[in-house]
Amino acid sequence: MTSPRMQSNSSAVDTDYVLEVEKLNVYYGSNLAVRDTYLKIPRNQITAFIGPSGCGKSTVIRCFNRLNDLIPGARVEGRVLFDGRDLYAKDVDPVEVRRRIGMVFQKANPFPKSIYENIAFGARINGFKGDMDELVERSLRGAALWDEVKDKLKESGLSLSGGQQQRLCIARTIAIEPEVILMDEPCSALDPISTLRVEDLMHELKQRYTIVIVTHNMQQASRVSDMTAFFNAEATPTGGRVGYLVEFDKTQVIFNSPSQTATQDYVSGRFG
Fold first, then answer.
1. Per-residue model confidence as pLDDT tens for the chain (272 residues)
2. Minimal CA–CA distance to 223: which of 191, 243, 201?
3. CB–CB of 22/203 below 8 Å?
4. I want to staple 55 with a disulfide (CB 3.0 to 4.6 A). Which of 15, 196, 229, 243 is the partner?
5. CA dihedral 240, 246, 248, 250 (to 10 degrees)
6. Domains in the chain, ordered, with CATH?
7. Contacts of 164 (CB under 8 A, 6+ apart)
8. Contacts 24+ apart (CB under 8 A), 249-253
């Protein structure tokens, strides 16, 4: 795939939205995990996914860069559009999708390499031909980490603190110049100070990227996001659970005047 943007039909693209989900159903084997989801993710904003465990938040976010493809038996129905291009079209290369739509995971996962190589490695295998020193510095500055590591770039990325490791992973993600950064519980293993640093970084990054974050932390969602999607789950006749989108709106609406009682109950702590 040259790129979803280059192949998109410009007349059909709503430039206000970078990702659009239409009637998304996700199965693991014969089990329906998420049903009938419709979403539009606005460009250069932070969208938070909230909801109780097992409601499909991470399943949906992993559809955005086709990570569910790596799970045996996983199947996606419906459409996921990136700049108007269906990410699940037959001629789309999932590897290219994952370059354009980066991912930061719950647990920081630096490569067992130097700080410098953590940034350079991904850029190199993606064909970067420019000034690597400049790219490494720019990426680390973009992740608000340069001043802390500039004198120890040859040291292992694993020698950093947990919060620094997570910011290193963010730097590694932005080094390959994605359009979207997905964050799946990026602060759940961090202390409060490191969490606030990552949250401050998100506000800076949204000037250049679209961010989608999964979080169980209501305070975090209300602090960092512009839009919030509340997911819930219900029991199925076979004894499983299926996730579904209850409500999606501006964050201040979701937290202050949601239209659904279930949303109000969740954000006020009555269940979850």
1. 444 333 334 334 456 999 999 999 999 999 999 999 999 999 999 999 999 999 999 999 999 999 999 999 999 999 999 999 999 999 999 999 999 999 999 889 999 999 999 999 988 888 888 999 999 999 999 999 999 999 999 999 999 999 999 999 999 999 998 999 999 999 988 889 989 999 999 999 999 999 999 999 999 999 999 999 999 999 988 878 999 999 999 999 999 999 999 999 999 987 65
2. 201
3. no
4. 243
5. -120
6. 4-267 (3.40.50.300)
7. 145, 148, 149, 194
8. 250/226, 251/48, 251/221, 251/222, 251/225, 251/226, 251/227
d(CA 205, CA 157): 22
pLDDT per residue as tens digits for the range 172-213: 999 998 999 999 999 988 889 989 999 999 999 999 999 999
- Strand duo 17-28 + 101-104: pairing: unpaired
Q: Give the residue among 130, 64, 74 at the shortest CA–CA distance from 102.
A: 64
Whole-structure pTM value: 0.90
Q: Are strands 74-82 and 17-28 parallel, antiparallel or unpaired?
A: antiparallel
Q: And the tokens for 185?
A: 């519980």
